[in-house]
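Cross-posted from the bioinformatics board.
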Amino acid sequence: MQGRRRWELLVEAAIEALIRLCGVSAILFVFGIFFFVFREGAGYLFNGFSPRGFFLSPEWYPTSQSHVRYGVLALIAGTASVTVLAMALAVPFGIGAAIFVSEFCGARWKEILKITIELLAAIPSVVWGFIGLTVMNPLIMQLFEVPIGLNVLNGGLILALMSVPIIVSIGEDALKAVPDSYREAALALGVTRWQLVYRVLLPAAKNGLLAAVLLGVGRAVGETMAVLMATGHAVTIPTSVMDSVRTLTATIAAELGEAPVNSEHYQVLFIIGILLFTITFIVNLTADLIVRGVRRR
Amino acid sequence: MSDGKIDFVDLRVRYGRREALKGVTFDVRRHEILGIIGPAQSGKTTLLRTINRTIDDVPGAVVSGAVRVDGEDVRLAPDLYGLRRKIGMVAPLPVGLPLSIFDNVAFAPRMAGIRNRHDLEGRVEQCLRQAALWEEVKDRLDSLGTKLSGGQQQRLTIARALSHDPEVLCLDEFSIAIDPVTTMRIEDVLRDLRSRMTIILVTNLVQQARRLADRTAFLLNGNLVEVDRTDVIFSEQPASRKTYEYVNGIFG
Amino acid sequence: MFQATPLTRRKGYSELVARTIFLAMTAMMVLPLILIVSYLFYKAWPILSPEFLLAVPRNGMRAGGIWSPLLGTIYLVVISLVIATPIGVLAAVFLNEYARENWMTRVVNLAVVNLAGVPSIVHALFGLGAFVLFAHLGKSILAASLTLAIMTLPVIIASTKEALASVPLAFREACWNVGATRWQTIRHVVLPNSISGILTGVILQVSRAAGETAPIMFTGVVFFKAIPEGKLFAYGLFDQCMALSMHLFTISTQVPDVPAALPYGTAVVLLSSVLAVNAMAIALRVYLRARKKW
C-alpha cells in the first residue's frame, strides 16, 4: 500500500472515531446531567435524610427562622393537579384533533393544520406564562368571580395548550402507522367513518396514542416558566381548581436564586431536580418501550 | 490450486437462519463471460456480494468457505477498497448518483486519488464511450445523473464501474428495469469488453445467457446444479435433468 | 335509483356528526391561539417601533427599549448553535450510517429521547453544577450557551437523522461498489444531499434556544446589565448578559409599575421572532421538497 493511501485510511479512522464519540455523547450527557445535579444535592441525602419527612409532608418551610422543614408533598400535589387537569383537557382534544387531521381532513387543510400545530408548539414557555398572567388571569377572575386568577385552572389551561401539539403530532403518526388495508377492509364492509375510527383505528393505534399521551405528561410535568407565572405562590395541597399552587419545577426556579450556595436549602432544590429527572426519565422510557412494542409488530 | 480468475471454494452464506448458499464450488476463468442463471432466491446476488465483500454490510450475514480472486482469499485482502476497485458491480436497478454526469464517472478515480482535471476528463470520456453513452451525454456532462432515463442510468452505472479499471465486471440482472433496445446495446458493450476483463453475468433471462455467455452456471436454492459450456447447458443433454427443465421453462 | 333507508340515512347522519365534533375540537385549540396572539399584538401596538428594538431599558426597565436583552439572546443563540451543530450532526451520522442494530444503538437512541425530555429547570441545575461551578466558568454567556447547546442537541440530531435517512440506500451501495469508503460516501454524497434537513434542524434549534428561560436564568443571564446602545460586540464571553425571554419574565413579574405596553411589546417581539424562525424552517422544508434531486 502506498504511504499516501495509508495516511488516508488513518484520517478516515480518526474521523470515524470522532463520529462514534459524538454518537455516544448523548449517553454521556444524560449521565452527566444526573451526575452533576446529584453532586450538588447529595449533601442533603447523606445528612439524616428521612424519605417520609421529605415525600409525605406538605410542610415546605425552607426559610423559616425557627423550624426549617422540607416536605414536598404539597409541591408534588401542585405538579400533579396541574398536570391532571392539563391532560384531562389536552388528551381528548389532542386525540380528537389527531383523528380529524388524519382521517377527516383534505390534503390542503391537513397541511395548514399541521403547520398551525407546529407553530403552536414553538411558542416559548415564558410567553405562555405571560399569557396566563395577562390574559387568563383577568378572564378567570371575571368569569368565576374569584379574587385571584393564578391557580390550578389557569396553569392547567395553559399547560393543556402547550401539551396538545405533542399529543397531536405523535398521535397522528400513530394513526398514520395503521395500515391502509385496515381502513379499506372496514370501509368495504360498509361502516361509517366514526365506526372505523372508534372500532378499528383507535384500538389498532392505541400503543402509539398511549405513548403520545405519556410524552404529553412528561412535557407537562417538566414545564417550568409557564406554571411559575400562572399558578400562583401558595405551597398548599389544592382542594379546588381555584386554589393557587406551586409545582416542583416552579419551586426550584423561584427559590434557587435566593438559596446560598451549598446551604441545605440549595441542596434540597437540587434533590427536587433529581426527582423531576427521575419522573420524566421513567415516563420517557415507558413511552419508548410502548412505541418499540408497536414497531416490532 | 486452480488458476481461475475467481474461485469459489465450498462457499456457504446464511442470513440469520436462512441459508442462501449451501456450499458452492466452481471457478470463473479469465476473459470469459460466465453466465449465472437460476430462479429467484437462488443465491445469485449473494454470490456476487461475496466477491467484493459488500456482503459484510448486510446485517446478520455469515460467510464460510472461501472466495479467491487471483488465488488470494478476499477475506484476507489487505486493502478492501482496492479489492472493490478490482471488481466492477452493476446492480439490477439503475442508479445515477445525485451528482453531475461527469462527477458520476469521475467519482471512483477521485476517491482513489486522481486529481488532475485532464486525466479525469480523459477517463470520463473513455468510460462513457465504452458504455455506449458518450454520444448522448457529451454536451451535457454537467447535468444531474439522476435525471437520465433508466436505460441511460444503467449505462452510466456501467461507465462508473469501468472508471476504476476493474479486472472483473459483475452484472446482476442488469436488464430487468430497462428497455430492450438499451439491453441490446449493453450486450454489445459486454461483447467488446470481454477481451479486456472477465465478466460475470447474473441473469433471469436464460436467452441472454445463451446469447452472451461462454460458460453458464445454474444455481438452484443455494446449490450449484451444474456449470459447463453454454452450448452444453442449453443442449438436449445437460448433466442434470433440472437444468433442462429450468432452461426450457418447465419450472422457474 | 337508490332510496336511502333509515339505516343509511342514520349512518350518513352519524358521519356528519363525527366530522363536526372532531372539527370543533380542532378549532377549539386553534382559535383561542389566534385570538390570544391578536390580543397581544393589539396591546403591544403603541410601543412597537425600531426605537423599541434599539434602545436599552431605562428607569429600572420601566421605559426605553429591549436592545440589551435582544443582543444577549442573539449571543446565546449563535454560540449555542456553533457548539450544538457539529456534535448533533455527527451524532446523527453515527446513528444513521455507522451504528449496527445492537443494544448499544438502542441505548444511544434512548439517551437522545431522554435528553429531549429533561425538564428545562433540570438543565438549569445541570448547567449550574457542571459549567458554572465545576468547570469554573462562573455565571457567563459561555456557561449559559453550553447549557442551551446540550438542551437543544436532540433537535439537531432528530432533523439530521431524518435528512440522512431520506437519502436512498441505493446511492450508498453504488458508492461502496466502486470502492469508496464509508466516510467518503457520507462526505461526498450523503451529507451534501442532507443539507436541507440539517438546516431545518439548525433553524429549529435557534427557535428553541431563543425562547428558553430557565436554563439561562442561573447560568449567566441577569436581571439587568448596562451596556452601550447600538454596539454589536457589547458582551464578552465571560460576561453575564440580559436575554429577551428572561426580560419578559422580569418585567412582567418582578418589576412593579411597568407601563402595560412594555411587557406586551417584549412578548410580541419574542413571539414574532420565534414564529418567524419556525416559519422559515417550514418554508425551507416545502421549498426543498419541490426541488428534490431524485
